[in-house]
Amino acid sequence: EAYPIxxxxxxxxxxxxxxxxxxxxxxxxxxxxxxxxxxWAQSAALATELQARGVGVSSIVGLHLHKSPDVIVAxxxxxxxxxxxxxxxxxxxxxxxxxxxxxxxxxxxxxxxxSLPWLDATTPICAPLTSADLxxxxxxxxxxxxxxxxxxxxxSGSTGRPKGVEVTHRGLVNVLLAQIEVFDLSADSRLLWLLxxxxxxxxxxxxxxxxxxxxxxxxxxxxxx
Length: 225
Hints:
The chain is α/β, with parallel strands linked by helices. Helices cover 33% and strands 20% of the residues.
């Protein structure tokens, strides 16, 4: 059955969560880390933590995380608050990260580091969560709009000063649904997340897997970060 063209990412993911809650959503280094039900619950729990730090509609949240299940959880948590995320490569120079967070007026940063010297001292830091009650996501309702900002991604700067590019949910979801059809993906598919979260194309790795009800697999450190 075809997906509604303008359904939100979260509404489509919720369909997968309800129809196959125990199916593996994410595996890392060969080990299952999240079922679809578990991913949804942990994202809802982190969304609550972000709300407590002032994150809401139109907020921008920095994700200072290496490629891991935590990135996906944090992305979804942002969207549950109608906020956008911005990848912050932990291996990037502090001066670059400071400029990015200042330019975008980041409201909060999700990081497993308790201290970020380059971050404005008034910006709250939220740690990733390790677990969540599976009932936490049940009361959540999708209030997102197609024109909501989904994420901000910075260009490489190879042709000049790096720039932040804004991507809305409308553009993201339509591209992902088209890719699922072209790649012939289904709930039986297994996809490798190869690219760094700081690359725009990584959203294809993640999004096509989740909206198809498939499993996304994260390799070890020998694979590209």
